[in-house]
Each structure stands twice: as C-alpha cells, then as structure tokens.
Amino acid sequence: MPNRNRWIWAVGIEDTFIGQTARGERPLDEYELIQHYRFWREDLDRVRDSGAAMIRYGIPWYRVEPEDGVYDWSWTDQVMAYFESHPELRPIVDLMHYGTPLWLKNEFMNARYPELVARYAAAFAARYAHIVPFYTPLNEPWINAEWCGWSGVWPPYLQGRLGFALMMNQLCKGIVRTVQALKRAQPESVMVHVEASKKFVPSAPACEKEAAFWNELRYVMWELVQGRISAGHPLYEWALNHHIHESDLEWYRDNRIEPDIIGVNYYPQFSVNSIDESVILKEQIPAPVPGTAEDMKHIVHDLYRRYGKPIMITETSYNGTVAERVDWLNEVIQASEELVREGVELYGVTWFPFFDMADWPYRTNGLPRRDNMATFGLYTLEEQEDGTLLRVKNAAAERFEAAARQSSSGEGTRTS
C-alpha cells in the first residue's frame, strides 16, 4: 500500500462486454467498438506515456471461454505478456464487466453462475498469477443489477425491484465465490471491489424518509458479501421481502469476505439521484441530478467510516467538452487532496475511461457508432473515412499527465 499521504494515479479503458443478440440487439463489446483489439499495444503505450501507474483492464469472458470449460487465451496471453514486460504499469484485472458467455443460458440467473464465474477466475489466476496481483471480482454490481434486473435492457432482462434484488443476490454470490477462488490460487492477491457510488436526495420533505432508506440500500452489495445482514439490520426486512431468504443471508455470513480496497465509481452526471413520488409509488429507477466534488467526498467519507478500508476512486470523468473534462479533473484533484488531509486512506484516483467510448444505447438504437460516441476520454476518438478511430490527445490528457508527473517527482501526491 502507498503511504497514506500519497495516492496512485490510474486510468481504465471502457470494457463492457455484452455479446448476446437474441432479441435483435447489436453486440456491445467496447474493445471491438473502439478498436482496442486492433490497437491494444499502441493504446497501452499511450497509457504508460500518461504517467499512470495502474490501469483497470477488463477481460472479455465471453471470448476467453467460448464454450463451457474451454478457454482461448490467445489474445489475453499477448496483453498479459505486455504487462509482464512493463512492470511500471500494473493492471487491476476486471474479470467481470456486465456480460456473460454466450453459452450460459439465462446469464446471471443461471443457478450455476456463481460457480462458473469462480471457475473462470481460477483459470485466469492459474495462468497469470505471476503477472497480476490486483483483481476486481465484478464491476459495479448496482448498475449490473439495475440494467439486467430492473430496467430489463440487458440480459437476462428481468424487471422491477424484485428483479433487481434477485440479480444482486446472484452477483454477490458470484463475487464471494470469485474471491474465494482467487485467494486459494493467490493468497497474496489484492481485491479491489468496485461499486457505483450513489447518493440519494429527496425531491421534497415528504420523500426524506424514503431517501434515507435508499442511502442505506446503496450499501447492499458491501453488506451482503461481508455477511453483515441479519435480524435487526436496516436491510433485513427488505432482503426477505425481495426473495433474498434467510438461508441466503446465512450463506453470506458463513462465507463472508473482506474487501482489501473499496473502489468508488463517481460521476457528477450520474451518481447523485433524486427520490421522488415516481420512485416511491411507481417503483421507477431514481433519476440522476447534477452532483459535485463535495458529493463525491461525502460518499467517500461515508464508506471510509463504515468499513475502515483503503479507498480508491476507481472511476471518475465527465461526458462533455474537453474544457469541462479539464475542469472536472481539477475538482477531483482538489477533492482528493482534501480527503487525504481529512484522514481518508486514499489508495488511488482513476480517470475512466482513458479513451472516448461507444455509449451503451448503441446496442439497441440502430444509429452508427459515430452518433453514439460518449466524450469522456483523455484521448478523443476521431473516426476517419476508412472507419479507423484516430486517438487524439486532448487538454484533459495534458492535465492528467502534469498531475502524474508532479506525483512521481514527489511534489504533493505521488505513486510509490
């Protein structure tokens, strides 16, 4: 771990992998859409040039395990060899980023999902343990459960709060099984658990009680995997009422895990949500409202007080102009400095994604890729006449590099 007064600068490449097309959707494989499979070496060279010391890096499970129990490591071998050759850039391997293999019927709700995702994790560790010590068992359980289990946009297309809870239960069991498998294979491995941070605000005084409950519910993943929910817990009745049974809660208590690092994904455009009558009466998904760096700090302080573990900002960025991205990065730097001064053990700060990305509606809206680009990146993706996406460094990248250089020189925060 770094000295608590210094943090690591990191980046990530958007790595959503949803290959299912049974309902007429297009595959949502971000590495394919941003041409990372084609330019992966050059992309990672750019990351090293940025001064980032770590990278959140996803593995496309659906490609790695094209058949049940049959693995194809041909592409992954090349990338892991790159990391082995460049130890100054350490990967946090993102094993599960929304999508499952195409052969897994009913996707996350398959009864075998927890054991199968753990089997895949164990196979990865058996091959690459000498290269990779840092893992994210599953990215953003909340968003995964929301899109797959509440809105029904992604497979297995469940809907409503019950679908959300059923999905969350399956995902959390998969997280526990994955961590157990990785710790057996690599006892010294470090688990960077990554969750979408949430802050719920009431739209009116009449909604304050409901907002308070939602601000407890946002911790459901952390509470489940650590076996904290039992009679008297604020989420106990919610769990039982949403088909997370006492036997499930007992299983979590018997198999509890502890996070090594708490990963916080915070986006000022998405992470603060309003609780209003549509949420209370119609069970709609809470809508986002603009958030601030102070909101991010509030979330971090809450998590640090609650769990007492090192915190890493595992995703943050701004979907907008380059100037807006620079402004947000400056706010993040200031907020991070304040968090350290206020006593938070801040492990790292991650700009995510490093490149622009194809936004998720691409999967269903039928519009060309160029009309689906989300401008979060330190590098702008400019589509050429032949379809090639040119990587163009922008001013946000220059600001990030300056911060990383300052860190490595020992001024203020720095990597260690």
Number of domains in the coordinates?
Answer: 1
Number of strands: 17
Mean pLDDT level = 96
- Identify the overall geometry: globular
Largest sheet data: 8 strands, parallel, barrel
Instruction: Provide the CATH top-level class.
Output: Alpha Beta
Point out poorly predicted stretches: 412-416
- Sheet-strand content, in percent, reads 15-25%
List the total number of helices. 16
Instruction: Give the strand order, joined by hyphens, for the main sheet.
Output: 1-4-5-6-7-9-12-13
The CATH topology turns out to be TIM Barrel
The assigned CATH architecture is Alpha-Beta Barrel
List the helices and strands and how they pair.
Layout: E1 8-12, E2 17-18, E3 28-29, H1 30-33, H2 36-49, E4 54-58, H3 61-64, H4 74-85, E5 90-94, H5 113-128, E6 134-136, H6 141-149, H7 160-185, E7 190-196, E8 199-202, H8 208-217, H9 220-225, H10 236-241, H11 246-254, E9 261-265, E10 272-275, H12 277-282, E11 287-289, H13 293-307, E12 311-315, H14 322-341, E13 346-351, E14 357-358, H15 362-365, E15 373-374, E16 379-383, E17 389-393, H16 395-408
Helix pairs in contact: 5-7, 6-7, 13-14, 14-16
Keywords: Glycosidase, Hydrolase
InterPro entries: GH, Glyco_hydro_1
GO molecular function: beta-glucosidase activity
Could you provide a short overview of the structure?
The chain is an alpha/beta fold and 416 residues long.
Give keywords.
three-stranded mixed sheet; alpha/beta; GH; hydrolase; beta-glucosidase activity; TIM Barrel
